[in-house]
Specification:
Two copies of one chain form a homodimer. Chain A is an alpha+beta fold. Helices cover 42% and strands 21% of the residues of chain A. Chain A has a five-stranded antiparallel beta sheet with strand order 2-1-5-4-3. The interface between A and B is large, with 63 and 66 residues. Chain A binds a DNA duplex (30 and 30 nucleotides) through helix 8.
Amino acid sequence: MDDFTRKMAQAFDAAPIGMAVSHHRVLDMCNTSFAEMLGYDRANLLGQSFRILYPSHAEFDRVRDIGLKAMEENGSYSDERMMRRKDGVPVWCRFRARTLTPDDPLAHLIMSFAPIRDQLDGAQLTKREREVLSGLSRGLTSKEIGRELGLSPRTIEDVRARLLRKFEVKNTSELLSRMSYARPTN
Amino acid sequence: MDDFTRKMAQAFDAAPIGMAVSHHRVLDMCNTSFAEMLGYDRANLLGQSFRILYPSHAEFDRVRDIGLKAMEENGSYSDERMMRRKDGVPVWCRFRARTLTPDDPLAHLIMSFAPIRDQLDGAQLTKREREVLSGLSRGLTSKEIGRELGLSPRTIEDVRARLLRKFEVKNTSELLSRMSYARPTN
DNA sequence: TGGTTATACGGTATTGATACCGTATACGAT
DNA sequence: ATCGTATACGGTATCAATACCGTATAACCA
């Protein structure tokens, strides 16, 4: 076995960020960080469906199509999403993916997962708030998010208002720049 | 060569995030994302000192000691730092490191680098665009940004429209979620 | 058991964002 | 010299966002 390959494999395994490889949403390989982040032993995780790593079947279905178009075009995609630890505790992650099969993006995916620290200590987001936030980060309007979730646009506006209050921000733009990491630009 | 190792090596190389391995600040291995992020061919990068990847010798010296203590204690460290692309353009990164040699952290380091600005590097933004983006991330309206910069609100709207076109996003919320990367734990 | 919060929805009023139309100057590249 | 882009500004039209008013149910907690 050549040294090059061995070095890369070791770097993958010891990487300071969670990484995983999937084929059609089944985990084919992951590193130690990934398994630790989700509270599993790697041996118990390999070969499993990603379903068990999401909070619900609905969430699992929801995230499937998100980013498919971006991956068909650019080969890569990133967003923020909620994962589910083995003990049930949700983990909010910066998710990045690159596909090796652009024609069928999910066929061979390489992913990285970086846990996001919540802005408010202890103030975790509700399921609805995360769903709405997901739509907002994709640039959807309240009307569009309502359609996606089967709710009235008015309800989405309520959730938005609650998010703005919780994070003490003036509008959605400031909210999204706080949810991710925004530096001053000068 | 076993399949396990081969899979991990491939995942390392095709990872959607820049990764590198160093021995005493000399690059021993990196993946495609890392080389691309910094504008090099991997072949020209391996074996080089990290010095060439920082904006100045002073910065190279400064970052050496940062995080040494954290790595001796936890084995890992992360911050945001400026890297220097081959063409001289600075790139802001979320930097993460794990050492495999806690007694002498720099002896064997595994690192990941995520550009804080994703789709487009910050250098491609004009001064005006950065000024306006700064206001937007603080939740200011076009009118308020105009006051701050001594410009007409209409001009701010022009800059916003240009930003939306450049990044191919639907609105300011999506823009800000693309411009910034997640704030990680630690 | 009452208080708080999340959820869900309706109306209305105001402000903001975005997309067009237009003009004009400046600057760098081909 | 002309093309493209950034800058800067004006008007108008339309849709979205936000802030209020209200009601109602369900969950949880002290």
